[in-house]
Design a protein that fits this description.
Shape: globular
Strand content: 15-25%
Number of strands: 18
Structural class: alpha/beta
Helix content: 25-40%
Radius of gyration: 22 Å
Distance between the termini: 42 Å
Number of helices: 9
Length: about 375
């Protein structure tokens, strides 16, 4: 007989919570018959959908054949048969919801940022540790095929000594007047927990720490390029949160990383995010799924000459890394890893303290922008 884990899912009416976590992860695992453990036993997921908009939650449940839904989160947390709480709601609510879930004895898994402030993030992480529950934070970009190829290249010694990392992230988010915006309006209001620095530096922290070197210092410049937008109701509003961030990081081992993040940039690159890693022996450029390399023996030798058109087609001098180990959805892969952690104590390096590190870097990035200076990133106790 298969094991059962009852999953309280909050925040599934939003784009990320619905698409990546509900449909492509939990329901996909359910429809596949669960997660297989080392013993061969299977763990089945039994979700209950929770949200303040009961009509919307019920409609989603009925659409996908989910038998359980409720608008009463207190009742859901009180049910001893559901042992895992997941949250993908708004950042401002997250620390409070996680605290309530942990105090109710639930294991917790959540999106990031895990809180608005570092103090709140550390408080939740420490509460989880004291309570003895299992806990995790989504680190989805580590499970992207493109970044996993970068990890393989690093582990193989391809780069030699890594010198620098340059990343470009972002796309044009429409203002909402003549075309509907692709992101919710709260993302652009400071009072609602918006801002690209709080959102994206949490991602870049775990990417850099896990792939290129622990982050030691940060210099960040933010900007609000589009100060007025139109919300979901067609009402104009002041967009006072940062919609772009230009950040430089010092990493362990002398690696320098620079990452531009923007919701006000038009894409002319291989993907919505690209990472270029340069090393003494070779370089690589990775997007979400693909990765290209250039070894030092294949590096062209350009000469600066502004008086004639460039004769080298630089794109053709790179080789694509093959998909020798094709994987599925990265969010689902991490869900399965966490389920194995719950069911058989499988390896799990992504506890809430990792989420707190992301909030720490975002907080320091905002402070660096405000004070116009470099800031060290101290280790968290």
């Amino acid at each position: 007989m298969a094991k059962r884990i009852g999953v309280i899912m909050h925040g599934i009416t939003g784009r990320m919570g619905y698409n990546q976590h509900l449909v492509r992860s939990v329901l996909a695992i359910r429809d596949a018959g669960g997660v297989t453990l080392r013993s061969g036993e299977r763990v089945e997921l039994d979700p209950i959908l929770v949200g303040r908009n009961e009509a919307k939650v019920r409609e989603i449940a009925e659409r996908h054949g989910v038998k359980r839904w409720t608008g009463d989160i207190d009742a859901a947390l009180a049910d001893p048969n559901d042992t895992l709480f997941f949250d993908a709601g708004t950042t401002q609510m997250r620390a409070g919801l996680l605290t309530r879930a942990i105090e109710a004895g639930k294991n917790v898994y959540c999106e990031k940022p895990i809180a608005d402030t570092l103090d709140e993030a550390l408080s939740v992480a420490r509460l989880a540790e004291r309570s003895g529950v299992k806990h995790g934070v989504v680190q989805d970009k580590l499970f992207l095929p493109g970044l996993q190829k970068l990890a393989m290249l690093r582990d193989s010694g391809f780069f030699g000594r890594i010198l620098s990392v340059r990343a470009e992230f972002g796309y044009w988010v429409f203002e909402g007047d003549w075309q509907a915006a692709q992101r919710p309006s709260w993302n652009y209001r400071t009072k609602d927990g918006g801002g690209i620095i709080l959102d994206m530096l949490c991602h870049w922290r775990y990417v850099m720490d896990n792939l290129f070197g622990a982050v030691k210092a940060v210099s960040c410049l933010g900007a609000t390029h589009i100060p007025r937008r139109v919300d979901e109701r067609g009402e104009p509003y002041e967009a006072d949160a940062d919609d772009a961030a230009y950040a430089t990081f010092e990493l362990e081992g002398g690696v320098v990383a620079h990452i531009n993040s923007s919701w006000a940039v038009r894409v002319r690159r291989d993907d919505l995010v690209t990472f270029q890693v340069d090393g003494t022996h070779g370089s690589a450029v990775a997007g979400l799924t693909k990765c290209w390399t250039q070894h030092r023996v294949n590096t062209p030798k350009p000469v600066w000459n502004p008086d004639q058109p460039q004769t080298i087609d630089f794109y053709r001098t790179w080789d694509e890394v093959p998909d020798n180990n094709p994987g599925g959805n990265g969010f689902r892969a991490q869900w399965e890893m966490f389920i194995r952690h719950l069911a058989e104590d499988g390896p799990w390096p992504y506890g809430l303290i990792e989420g707190a590190k992301g909030v720490q870097l975002a907080e320091l990035g905002l402070r660096s922008w405000r004070e116009r200076r470099w800031l060290d990133v101290p280790a968290l106790a």
